[in-house]
Amino acid sequence: MRRNILAGLDLGTTKVGAVIAERQGHKLSILGFGVAPSEGLNRGLVANIGKTAEAIKRAMEIASNRADIDIRSVNVGVAGEHITSLRHRNYVTINNPDREITQSDIDRLKADVRTIRIPSDRQILHIIPEEFFIDHQGGIENPIGMSGSRLEALNHVVLASIPAIQNIRKSVERAGYSVENYILQPIASSVSVLDEHEQDLGVVLIDIGGGTTDIAIYHEKSIKHTKVIGVAGNQVTNDIRESLGIVTAEAEKLKKEYGYASEEAIIKDEDIYIKGVGARGTIKIPVSLLTQIIHVRMKELFTIIDNELRQTNFKNKIKAGVVLTGGGSLLRGIVDLAEEVFGLPTRIGVPLELGNGLSNEIESPEFATVAGLIKGIPGSPSSENVISIKTSRPRKNFNVSKFFKKIQEFFDEL
Question: How many CB atoms lie within 10 A of CB 56?
């Protein structure tokens, strides 16, 4: 029996996430999910192919074992400061006798975009139509079936570094898999956490990861701008480490357990006792001091994004506000800080409409990207993102308690 199985792989700076799902009609069922610590990436770029491959293999094995399915190809998320985007407008003439527009005409438009001149070290990652025009009449979302003599499209074109993509491919292949599609991470996150009303009114998605912060701007139901910024959660952790003179693991723990992005959000300014390094004894700091360290970096990040919104002339079009997602959005008080800097209503985005199965395990902002990788690319036929199952193992008795014991032992070792 042929089943539509989809697999997504989120290559993060701090963790690699893998998810396996089955599509039945318009419904998804999450069959397997796995996470492994990541040490081979830096700001979205592969820095060590061997370590990245090991993390991919570990995450995929966990997901595959839970799904009881062998996966050979995956949709892979792409990020990093090498990502750029541009807007390009082109047209084709409709040659068939009845002037009816078909999918082949859309394909010709995309093929024409691929002929534009771009730097030799870049490749086109996505061509996403923002708007179609038929005989100069705009505002058309789907022209298929309509009649006309000239079809135009305003396209959002995403470019990526060829070496960066090659290193991702090598890492995935060394882990024993092949790449089905490369999907820009902020687009994947947008698919999983934004609703169509927000995309219509105008919204900016900010996905705060470990190594990069990804931005996607939507207006009138189409993507208008994407950007990847090399300031994210790891920089906050490093600021804490440097300011307090503690090891990275302790700094990360402090950020997650006691950190706030805004002093106004502090419930109780209690003292925190921090284990010293070497001859240095235990130190004591108030929560407010830790918050000040975090606040400076997060305000810098939001200011950079606000400047980006102004420079691209989209600030006044963001009527639905800001949606924060990614692991960095779990910082307490981050919504308050975002509303202060942007002057816009802000909410935390969690993956939506994930269907049945293990969906509750990835209903968290930190898994927004991996959830979106199995839902498809806006503006593209869904079939482009469907991975047909290659191999299915015979069903075996699955010892749930033994499995979770192994997972607990894994995290205890971290």
Answer: 27
